[in-house]
User: Fold this.
Amino acid sequence: MKKHLLLIAMIGVLCWLPYLTATETAPAERLPIGVIARFDDHGAGLPFDKAVQSGVSVMQLKVPIAANRTEENVKKILDALKKHNVQLVCVVSGFAGESYRTIPIVKETVGLAPEKTRKERFEEFKGVSDFAKRLGAPSVQFHLGAVPHDTKSKEYWDVVQIVRDSCDYVFANGQSLNLETGQETGPALLQFIHDVNRLNLHINFDPANMILYGCGEPIEALQLVGPFVRSTHCKDARWAEPELQGKEWGQEVLFGTGDVNAPLFLETLRNFGYNGPLIIERENREHPEAQYNDVLKTIEYLKQLRKKIFE
Ligand code: MG
Assistant:
């Protein structure tokens, strides 16, 4: 009888051994550092070939134009990702006719929000999701554009509906939809997500955009919408002068040198138990060498910060 009990106890210990001895997943895997890349000339990320060689482990890819979404290019992308051991976590959508020249022009031209282009852009967006599926990407992402402020208006609920339709479409492709922050305040974004009411709707939190667009203090917004954040852009910026905020751009700067407060940004993410990617976004594609060097610097900076805050 005693032998029998001893045997049961030993089997029990053996079964639990892997759990008792397992250490937590290393931060390098929990919070992979990545970059935004562009395969063709469209978008602000690093050129794809540079991005895969930069030493990151994950990537968001700006969607190539439709003519470049060929089988040959899909193979080229997948082969390069495999060769450099980079995981594609997201395809970033964009639409013909968008312009980021000024804040008022953004409101008129960007995303699915503008009514006059919404229908055709939704068709365009389906093509982006289908392309992301061919690459095995688990999510797609876009700037929705300026959501109408009156939450009781038909215009507001029309935008809610197009995002529901977008979520449902990408869901059928096995994807989630990430909204990039910046063009709404934290409370407005939270309300919007509740109104859309789709489980595969998440946030890609870009703290610099909150500053660039003058949409409120990013850390406060993050504290509000944190549970919906599944990816982040590590980008920094300085506020425009107070009287110009929301009318003229702030200035984008190297991550860790602007008004975001990068250490507090990561601490706030940690407090939500954030495990997702830390995607470096550096604009300045007019100076490709400086852009690439800034990305390399930010990789090292993020490694140190991640170690300090998450270990
Ligand atoms: Mg961004």
